[in-house]
C-alpha cells in the first residue's frame, strides 16, 4: 500500500504522497472491509516484543506511559494490532454497545475577536457573511430541536466584540425556560474564560450563573493541542492549556460534567498528541468529571493551513485507538462522524470508539472548513452505521443515560 510506504515513521503519521482532495481514503460502507483485506506489513521482532510488553501492561491493569503512546503512534507498528488492544478496552468498558444521541447545534454568532489561524468559521464584524442571531432565531432553532425530539442542544460560537456576558447568559436562560427538557451543553472553556474577563467575575461565579440559568454541561472545544509552541501558531490569542484545564476543573467542582477534545493532524507530532492526552488523563484522575473524549481531525481547507494535507483514515483510526489506550480513566471515546467522515467513524467503532455522537442538526463549524459529510444524519442512519459495524445501537442522553423513545417523545431509563 502506498500509504504505508510513504508514512513518516519518525512522526508516526501516515502522510501519503499524491493526495487528491480533502476526502477520506475510506468511504462509507466499505471502510471495514477495505482495511481488513489490505496487505499490512508484519511487525519486526523488536516491534512485536514491545507490543507484547504493552499488551502485558494492559492485561495487568497497568497504565501506559508517554513512551508507550509515542511507540503506538509509529506508522510501522501494525495498526490492526493497536486497534485490537484498544478494542479490548472499549469492549471491557462498554461491551458491544455503540452510543448515539439526538442533538442539534446552535451557533449564535460567527463573529469572533480571536480569529484563530486554524478556524474557517469565524468572521470579522463587517464581513459580508458575518451573522448574529436575534432572540427569535435562537428561539426558533431551539424549538425545532425540541419538536424533533432532540435531547441535547450544543451551543458554541464566536466571541463577539460587543456582546456582554449577559447576552450569552440570556441565550441559556431563554432556551432553558422555553425548553427545559433540552440538555444545554454550552460554551467552551475559551468562552467561559472570556465571560469572566468581560463581567469581571471569577470562572466559578460565571459557571454558577450559567448553571442557575439552565446550563447542563460544558462542551470540549478550545482544547486544540495543549503544547504552547503549537498553540501559539494555531491560536495565539486563546487561553493556554492551564487556563483551559482550570475552567473544566472549576466546572467539575460545581458538579458539571464536560467533554474533552484534541484537534490533531495539523502541525503537531505524536509527542504533542501524547502530551495532550496525558494532561487530560491527569485532570480526569483529579476530578472524574469528563464524560468522554473526542479526537477531532483537522480540516485545513479554507484555513491559514490550507497547504497541509488532510489526515488519512489510517492516522484517524490510530489516533482513536491510541487515545482509547492512553485515557484509561475515560469511559467513552467518540468517533465524531462530522470530523472523521462516515466511513472512518464507523470503522473506528472497532478501533476503540464506542460513540458516534449525534444527529447534529445543521453543523456549521466543520463544514465551513471543508467537511464533506452531510450536515445532519437521521437517527435511523446512525443506527444503520452502528449495526453495519457489528455493534448494538444505544441511544443515550448527554450524561450517557439510556433513552427510551417513541417517535419524538422520550424518557431516560
Ligand atoms: S476557533 Fe473559536 S475562538 Fe478561535 S476564531 Fe474560531 S470561533 Fe473564535
CATH topology: TIM Barrel
Distinct ligands, ions and cofactors found in the model: iron/sulfur cluster
Number of domains: 1
As a percent range, the share of strand residues is 5-15%
Q: CATH class, anyone?
A: Alpha Beta
Structural class: alpha/beta
Radius of gyration: 20 Å
Q: Average pLDDT across residues?
A: 90
CATH arch. level architecture: Alpha-Beta Barrel
What's the number of extended β-strand segments? 12
- Name the helicity range: 40-55%
Q: pLDDT under 50 segments (min length 5)?
A: 1-30
CATH homology group? Aldolase class I
Major sheet characteristics: 7 strands, parallel
Number of helices: 17
Distance between the termini: 47 Å
**How do the helices and strands follow one another from N- to C-terminus?**
HHHHHEEHEHEHHEHHEHEHEHHEHHEEE
Shape summary: globular
Amino acid at each position: 500500500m502506498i500509504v504505508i510506504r510513504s508514512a513518516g515513521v519518525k512522526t508516526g503519521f501516515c502522510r501519503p504522497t499524491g493526495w487528491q482532495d480533502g476526502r477520506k481514503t475510506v468511504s462509507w460502507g466499505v471502510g471495514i472491509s477495505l482495511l481488513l483485506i489490505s496487505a499490512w506489513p508484519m511487525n519486526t521482532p523488536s516491534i512485536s516484543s514491545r507490543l507484547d510488553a504493552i499488551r502485558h501492561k494492559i492485561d495487568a491493569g497497568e497504565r501506559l506511559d508517554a513512551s508507550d503512546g509515542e511507540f503506538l503512534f509509529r506508522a510501522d507498528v501494525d495498526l490492526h494490532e493497536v486497534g485490537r488492544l484498544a478494542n479490548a478496552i472499549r469492549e471491557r468498558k462498554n461491551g458491544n454497545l455503540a452510543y448515539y444521541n439526538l442533538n442539534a447545534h446552535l451557533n449564535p454568532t460567527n463573529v469572533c475577536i480571536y480569529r484563530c489561524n486554524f478556524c474557517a468559521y469565524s468572521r470579522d464584524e463587517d464581513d459580508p457573511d458575518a451573522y448574529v442571531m436575534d432572540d427569535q432565531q435562537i428561539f426558533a432553532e431551539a424549538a425545532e430541536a425540541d419538536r424533533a425530539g432532540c435531547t441535547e442542544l450544543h451551543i458554541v460560537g464566536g466571541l463577539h466584540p460587543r456582546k456582554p456576558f449577559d447576552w450569552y447568559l440570556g441565550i441559556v436562560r431563554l432556551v432553558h425556560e422555553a425548553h427545559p427538557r433540552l440538555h444545554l451543553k454550552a460554551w467552551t472553556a475559551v468562552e467561559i474564560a472570556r465571560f469572566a474577563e468581560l463581567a469581571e467575575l471569577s470562572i466559578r461565579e460565571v459557571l454558577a450563573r450559567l448553571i442557575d440559568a439552565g446550563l447542563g454541561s460544558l462542551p470540549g472545544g478550545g482544547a486544540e493541542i495543549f503544547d504552547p509552541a503549537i498553540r501559539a501558531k494555531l491560536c495565539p490569542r486563546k487561553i493556554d492549556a492551564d487556563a483551559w484545564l482550570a475552567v473544566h476543573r472549576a466546572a467539575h467542582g460545581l458538579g458539571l460534567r464536560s467533554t474533552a477534545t484534541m484537534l490533531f493532524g495539523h502541525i503537531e507530532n505524536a509527542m504533542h498528541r501524547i502530551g495532550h492526552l496525558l494532561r487530560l488523563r491527569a485532570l480526569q484522575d483529579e476530578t472524574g468529571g469528563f464524560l468522554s473524549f473526542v479526537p477531532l481531525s483537522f480540516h485545513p481547507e479554507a484555513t491559514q493551513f490550507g497547504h497541509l494535507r488532510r489526515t488519512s483514515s489510517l492516522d484517524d483510526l490510530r489516533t482513536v485507538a491510541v487515545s482509547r489506550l492512553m485515557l484509561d480513566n475515560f469511559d467513552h471515546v467518540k468517533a465524531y462522524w462530522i470530523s472523521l467522515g462516515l466511513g472512518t467513524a464507523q470503522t473506528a467503532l472497532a478501533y476503540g470508539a464506542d460513540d458516534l455522537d449525534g444527529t447534529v442538526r445543521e453543523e456549521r463549524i466543520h463544514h465551513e472548513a471543508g467537511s464533506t459529510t452531510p450536515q445532519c444524519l437521521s437517527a435511523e442512519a446512525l443506527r444503520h452505521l452502528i449495526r453495519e459495524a457489528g455493534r448494538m445501537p444505544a441511544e443515550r442522553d448527554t450524561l450517557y443515560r439510556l433513552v427510551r423513545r417513541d417517535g419524538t417523545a422520550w424518557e431516560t431509563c
